[in-house]
Specification:
There is one protein chain. The protein has 410 residues and is of the alpha/beta class. The protein contains 16 helices and 20 strands.
Length: 410
């Protein structure tokens, strides 16, 4: 059985879209079994799917459709009770905004016992620390949420930083310290970039997790500590175990539950509302946003995920907010190169960049573009940096440099 719905500005249409760019009867949506398709009904401004003008085309989850000044993204949602709520964009957890995909990823952690270790896995910029804070809040534990980036731990001082030390235990220890484990007593300790945890200290971390006891540097006895550990990683722990970078027994201890945050390109229906939220946060609701800009954002693959989208919104508001409208032409060249005016394929891949798009004003711009391409392939910052021959610290500096552009306050 075929189901049909007419899209247009006529009030008799099943889907009414207002605006001068929309024809009275603009397009027809039809669903024939599992197949969804859209047909242009000789509209004045046409129907575009993934940036390409079409007469009649099938649709799949993630496809971006433009009718006049309206942009839609095809989303796969299980029908039934609560389906409308699942589609709704909302704050699914404190600081995390999205719809069904994000909510479903976090739901197991909401039901989890409050002392089981959790690994939050996701690409850079997907919101792993916000998710960790949410898991801590849901646990109801009375202690603090304490965070440490394992990539910044000094190999010489990590023992003391994590487990504490007695005054005079080593040169420079002018006072005693309780350490991060005890600072998080009855709360949660968040180990960001856990795969960067020093190999030499992994046995001590395993012992602390297994025995729930720590021994400060310079002390003769262990101290009991009640801590829930939440970790973040850009790749599966098992990958690092297979490569000999991580202990398998530590992996088993940490993986009480794995929460995998979806990358932004896999929840394209959230891109437009997220961008509009970030623009409002930066300058209120006074700015108009061109539909072609929204279309380009939805077609871009966001290697730095939500963080990249937020920084872009702040930058555009800072540079172009005084103009009253944000346009597609305001986007950086590396985004327009991925979404050329002539259209893109269903996979989102664009044609080769033009000479103007390929030019970079500085070596930093060229390295940043190369890093973005590497992130699309490798999915983790460490591997992306290595693949183009720069250090991970250099990669993070390239990303951080974009935070200092006009309109960014981070």
């Amino acid at each position: 059985m075929t189901a049909r719905a007419i899209i247009g500005r006529d009030e008799q249409c099943q889907v009414v879209l207002l605006g001068d760019e929309v024809s009275r009867k603009h397009a027809e949506l039809r669903k024939d079994g599992p197949v969804l398709a859209i047909k242009d009904l000789d509209s004045r401004n046409g129907v575009h799917v993934n940036g390409v003008k079409v007469a009649d085309a099938p649709l799949a989850a993630g496809d971006v459709v433009r009718c006049g000044e309206w942009i839609g993204v095809v989303a796969a949602v299980d029908e039934g009770a609560g389906a409308a709520q699942a589609r709704a964009f909302r704050e699914v957890a404190p600081g995390l905004f999205g719809s069904e995909r994000l909510a479903a990823a976090l739901e197991p952690a909401r039901r989890l016992a409050n002392d089981l270790a959790v690994v939050i896995q996701g690409e850079t910029g997907t919101g792993k620390e916000d998710a960790a804070r949410t898991v801590h809040a849901w646990s109801g534990r009375s202690g603090k949420f304490v965070s440490v980036n394992c990539a910044t731990l000094s190999k010489d001082l990590a023992d003391a930083e994590l487990f504490g030390h007695r005054k005079g235990a080593f040169t420079g220890a002018e006072t005693s310290s309780e350490g991060l484990f005890r600072a998080a007593a009855k709360g949660s300790l968040f180990l960001d970039e856990v795969l960067e945890f020093p190999v030499a200290l992994q046995p001590k971390l395993l012992r602390a997790l297994s025995s729930k006891r720590v021994r400060p540097v310079g002390e003769a006895h262990d101290l009991e500590v009640d801590v829930r550990v939440i970790c973040a990683a850009q790749e599966p722990l098992r990958t690092a175990v297979e490569e000999g970078r991580f202990r398998p027994d530590l992996q088993a201890r940490l993986e009480g539950l794995v929460v995998e945050l979806p990358p932004l390109r896999e929840r394209r229906e959230d891109i437009a509302p997220l961008f509009c939220k970030f623009v409002r946060d930066a300058q209120g609701a006074s700015l108009r946003i061109e539909a072609r800009l929204i279309e380009a954002l939805c077609l871009y693959d966001w290697p730095l995920n939500v963080r990249e989208l937020q920084l872009l919104a702040r930058r555009l508001v800072g540079v172009h907010g005084h103009e009253g409208v944000l346009k597609r032409s305001h986007l950086p060249d590396h985004m327009l190169a991925r979404v050329p005016v002539t259209g893109v394929s269903r996979t989102g891949e664009g044609s080769a960049p033009t000479p103007r798009q390929a030019r970079r004003s500085t070596d930093d711009d060229g390295e940043f573009a190369a890093l973005m391409e590497a992130l699309r392939r490798e999915k983790t910052m460490a591997k992306a940096a290595a693949s183009i021959g720069i250090s991970r610290a250099r990669a993070y500096r390239l990303v951080s440099a974009r935070k200092g552009e006009p309109g960014d306050d981070e």
